[in-house]
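Chain A, query sequence.
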Amino acid sequence: MGVIEVKNFHKSFGSKHIHRGVEFSVKQGECLGLIGGSGAGKSVILRSLIGLEKPDKGNIFIDDVDITYMNEDQLIDIRKKVAYVFQGGALFDSMSVYENLAYPLREHTRLSEVEISQKIYAILEEFGLEGNEKIYPSNLSGGMQKRLGLARAIIINPKFVLYDEPTAGLDPYNTRRIQDMILRLKSKGVTSILVTHDMPSAFAVCDRIAMLKNGHIAAQGTRSELDSSRGGIIHNFINGEEP
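Chain A, predicted structure.
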């Protein structure tokens, strides 16, 4: 039993059946790496975990609560617990760094403006973004935009974080910084799922790896289990061989 559970998940778009009974769970404080080829439907699963997509069949449980058929009002409390780090950052270009960070605090907490300011300056320092509070996202480097997206996602202290390709397009220095931030959140007991093609990052931060193929979880295991399964489907995928 995990704090995130996906059971018999089916999803189609038109005539294309993407998921055919996906099942997995994530334990408290664990980071699960979700890998697979392009078009395997990894991001669809992440979006479903916060109700942005609905399965055609199956169930999704967050903290033992079935969110599968919740409406938007019912999902509000779930979305306070579950942060989604979008691949593109999903930042508000018309807002400064400060205002981007203030937005979720004003929307989802009852903090005073003084408390909001204190929280923002603390997270700016933690994420190496101090001095940029008046800058607009388009004037930040790609690595800084990624860090800002992560900072905004976690500023309300979620129990769960869903990462959609957080290191895509980053140089080794910024990739390492994102890895360190994920590990820091794990050390605080945050439960997470990492969708990625960046296998060094997956191995650096994930407790287990699960592979989506042909609409279901084709294989999963810990790093040591994968290392001992030469010729297995995940081993072949990682090494660019025919799975």
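Strands lie at 4-13, 16-26, 31-36, 57-62, 65-66, 82-85, 160-164, 191-195, 208-213, 216-221. The chain has one domain: 4-238.
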